[in-house]
Amino acid sequence: MTTLDIIQVLLFIALLIGLTPVLGKYMYKVFTGEKHIMLPVFGWLEKLIYKFVRVNPDNETNWKSYTFGLLLFNMVGFLFVFLIQLFQAQLPLNPSNLANVSWHSAFNTAVSFMTNTNWQGYGGEITLSYFVQMIGLAVQNFVSAATGIAVIIAVLRGISRKNTDKLGNFWSDLTRSTLYILLPLSILFAVVLVGQGVVQNFNSYETVQTLQGGEQVLPMGPAASQIAIKQLGTNGGGFFNTNSAHPFENPTPFSNFLEMFAILIISASLTYTYGKMVGSTRQGWTIFSVMMMLFVTGLTISLYSEYSTNPVFGHLSSMEGKETRFGITNSVIWSTSTTAASNGSVNAMHDSLSPLAGMMAIINIMLGEIIFGGVGAGLYGMFVFVILTVFIAGLMVGRTPEYMGKKVGAFEVQMAIIANLSTSFVILIFTAWAAVSSYGLTSLNNAGPHGFSEILYAFSSAAGNNGSAFAGLNANTLFYNLTLGIGMLIGRFGVIIPVLAIAGSLAGKNITPNSAGTFRTDTWLFAGLLIAVILIVGGLTYFPALSLGPIIEHLLMNSGITF
Amino acid sequence: MSTRQINSLFNKKILLQATKDSFTKLNPVILIKNPVIFMVGIGSVLTTIAVISGIFSGNFSGFNLQIAIWLWFTVLFANFSEAIAEGRGKAQADSLRKSRIQTMARRLVGDREETIAAPELRKGDVVICDAGDVIPSDGEVVEGIASVDESAITGESAPVIRESGGDRSAVTGGTKVISDRILIKITSEPGDNFIDRMIALVEGAKRQKTPNEIALSILLAGLSIIFLLAVVTLPAFFGYSLSASGLPLSQNLTIPVLIALLVCLIPTTIGGLLSAIGISGMDRLLQRNIIATSGKAIEAAGDVDVLLLDKTGTITLGNRMATNFFPADGVSESDLAHAAQLSSLSDETPEGRSIVILAKEKFDFRGKDIHQKNAVFIPFTAQSKMSGVNLTDAKGIVHQIRKGSSEAIRSFILNGNGFFPKKMEEKVSELARMGATPLVVAEDNKILGIIQLKDIVKGGIKQRFAQLRSMGIRTVMITGDNALTAAAIAAEAGVDDFMAEATPEDKLRRIRLEQANGHLVGMIGDGTNDAPALAQADIGIAMNSGTQAAREAGNMVDLDSNPTKLIEVVEVGKQLLMTRGALTTFSIANDVAKYFAIIPAIAVSLYAGKDGIGPLSALNVMNLGSPESAILSAVIFNALIIILLVPLALKGVPYRPVSANTALIRNLVIYGFGGIIAPFVGIKIIDLTINLFT
């Protein structure tokens, strides 16, 4: 690593810490109805939307109605994206005359974008029309991210309110997230990206002569606008198949830095919003520091592993599968950010990462996408671990465990367990199924433990709503489209529903005032405990699987065997 | 059976019974109440089947047999821990119950009296008890007054007064009337009095899980399911790896090995000890002579963060004591003390005695010196509110020395044409304002001075309250005194807050207010008018000496009627919750080492080179002897740790009154960090032992 690399890593982290309170405070204002700078710009639009869909934003509902609204909205979104893919040949904005998509691929893609996963079993530029990309996918990029934000805001209301069943109004939270947070940031970001050279047009693909005299088709399209939201909304679904390794998606080192930064900024800032909403920014920073410590640990191990001498080839750091324009450090920051944050966009092939860096990528996903995580999703996923930690360790102070003055009882524990079980169920059961069935194994491009890692990665990615892939796996098959699709659904709603249930239950409780007998959740001690619980629960669940994949591969590589 | 014997872990009778019970508890219907241990039970059966079918198919595996045996031991050890806790609780309860088995009751039917066995009494029956009779069941005195020996349940030998009406009307079955005759209305159905209820809580059948226990069981069941997922998917992952290593699928993991892994991972330690912890919590209360009517109450005690404490008896000694003499002008303090002592010799009230003692302490006067003189003692009566002595001096003049309330002395003086000096008047009201009780001493028609009587704050109570404060518990003193008096005592005792001139309605209102602000309130009370507050409080402890109404309203009864017990109850509650949390943390932390024992053992052949040792052997950080001994050591450790922790589960983790943060750090270091380290050491030792014999 050069000094410049180190400076870049530090700059990245410093900027994240610096901007978290700024954006976090702004989001707090958006959801508490305080005056903020975007109100004069989009305030009229918000009112118009409420009028149009006949919603009274002040009409708050209990957790069940909130959840119902959320599910209904997502279902409609899914059906819409599903259907327009099936009939894209008959629909406008299809200059390259792409054919209709197969039903299972359409199912997978529709689920994938609705759940903020953006797993892509297809190649973007050779499969989907501009219409589908813009009206279907880009819209879902916004609203799936907005859904995540809405959930965590509802959770925060559940924590901070008392003796009520009201969690807020889903439609209003959704509208505000989109209008005041995602849209302005995306517009700003898209303009910057266009300035850096990202394409933004409706042209049909161009054919050019290469230097060698051959012909190459250059895909075009409205890329900048989609890339902005795919990064900010932790969606990750690239406009082009090679995602942000493609020069039209990610032309310069500066665009690369910004795109990496955009992955984490909203999720990170939400921790500050968290602190503001529960009335103690220390609480928010505690969670932020837990996320940051896990992030830095993953990043360090990955960088160490990538910069170590490869014992097989005998030279430093393998560039295979990485974009030469960005180099190793930028590939590793990206791979860590994108897996930590459930984004899933890539600027290098994760398949080509060294075994340990690849394992860190899987672990980031397996831990539940809580290291910053998806917008909203990361924080409510972390909230599940907070509940578990409070329950396990809280008893040790000799009181019924409580979080922010709310007693954590059987119901909360049950829901936290269900949320936790959802993802481990998908990862373990579906990986096992794929590992023993011919339809699972025929898609593999690599043998041995690496092939196993590819399957494990795919289902972890689906369950964690990440969307990145180890790419050695041909996932556009009936089996993978369906299992991954179902995995994404369970991984998304198997967490959202229990989390909202916990929020509803907490809202109804009274708040015990703090005293010396209170189990503190805003200390380094708690941060350490939370990390321990995350690592132990995650580690114990996946250790056997990991040991038969990346760990064994790493050990074999050290003795000179690769796959 | 003495308490000490009961508490001994090595009480033979209890151990024997517990061993028997460990087997009867194998009944699946009973076992399923504990999902984690039930899972181990299923595993044991499956492994046993594997062993037996191995015998029949001619490839008997001694390894499988050993796994099966240790899995059965795991279940038995868990059962044993529960059984021994029940046994100790029962023994404790039995010693309470012993006295009440064969009592005959004299039931009153109309004017007639009939003799029936105590268990046949119904609620509402009226029975007669004369001196010497054992009270047949819990009830309320409806007529008469009697002194009752309650030593059978409290261990306190001094008899107590029970009378109809008022706050001393409740009597407990099994206690003995030692004087007079009372009519008692029975207030409980047979088998439903306090002790019966407590016994039912300790015994398995009727025991209900407390809210916290339920939540913890869910967590443990959830973790078990997660580990079940990890284990059932392992053969698939393993099969893939075998094919990739070019090994036959027949080498895939066997059922006993998978079950061994599962049992090691699921939280069997806390799962096995959970009910023992709960029962022993109740047992610890019982040892303090407190009967809880539900397990939930004990848990809630740990959560209480506001304590309402009655001043008298809890914060101050029951009686006021003389602390100072204030002589009138022209009188020396020693003369005053002398007169005060003389006038109090016939006052047998504690206040009177305290005056005698004070004079003795200050001036070394001895009461008996005056017996030579011609003295006629005037005892204290409620009517006169005075006590004193008439001394005849050498000249034959009678001196009347009196001590009493300022009103009584005033009229005594005025009768003798004396006057009450203004300075003394002022002192009287000043003392009254400060919360003290002034008693005035006079000789004939002259005021000698004032004795100050004060509430004496119990020794050590201030430190106790400071401890409570450091634990985050606020104390509120309740008193009928005026605000000034209350404030003075509150400051001296170091309570956080006080309620002066508190009526029962005030108490109730205060409890509701605290609860609305999110606090959990504990209080102790005895009177009928305390009943609503006792019912409203999260922890209401009724004194056994109190009324039946109070005892019904509270969720605990203190047999010793000692108000300080409230603090102990809180400590028992906290200790109970801490023990659960500590063992849960320990149990989960243990898993790390078990993975490092088992995963390298089962994966030894995968991707192996020519030496037959695969790369995952690098994870064998404990350097265990062989794959078989590694798995077996983990299983044996897992079983033994349950039995080793039984004493801790029964005694509870060491409890100290410290802040939440201090307690957390302490417990984390011992049970969290220790929980990670201990199995590494334990498994290594077991492995060494096994390999010594093979």
Features:
heterodimer, A: 563 residues, mainly alpha, two-stranded antiparallel ribbon, 18 helices, 4 strands, globular, B: 694 residues, alpha+beta, 7-stranded mixed beta sheet, 6-stranded antiparallel beta sheet, disordered N terminus
Largest sheet of chain B: 7 strands, mixed
The overall pLDDT average of chain A reads 88
Net shape of chain B? elongated
- Widest sheet: strand ordering of chain A: 1-2
Q: How many separate helices of chain A?
A: 18
In terms of DSSP E residues, the strand content of chain B is: 15-25%
Biggest interface, CB < 8 A: A-B, 70 and 80 residues
Radius of gyration of chain B: 34 Å
Percent of residues in helices of chain A: 55-70%
Number of strands of chain B: 22
Could you walk me through the main structural features you see in this protein, from its secondary elements to its overall organization?
The complex is a heterodimer of chains A (563) and B (694). With 563 residues, chain A is mainly alpha-helical. Helices cover 64% and strands 2% of the residues of chain A. Chain A contains 18 helices and 4 strands. In chain A, the strands form 2 sheets. Chain A has a two-stranded antiparallel sheet with strand order 1-2. In chain A, helix 14 runs antiparallel to helix 16. The longest helix of chain A has 35 residues. Chain B is an alpha+beta fold and 694 residues long. Helix content of chain B is 52%, strand content 17%. In chain B, the strands form 5 sheets. Chain B has a 7-stranded mixed beta sheet, with helices on both faces. A 6-stranded antiparallel beta sheet of chain B has the order 12-17-16-15-14-13, with helices on both faces. In chain B, strands 3-9-4-7 form a 4-stranded antiparallel beta sheet, with no helix packed on it. In chain B, helix 22 links the parallel strand 21 and strand 22. Chain B is elongated. The N terminus of chain B is likely disordered. Chains A and B meet through helix 13, helix 14, helix 16 and helix 18 of A and helix 8, helix 9, helix 12, helix 23 and helix 25 of B.
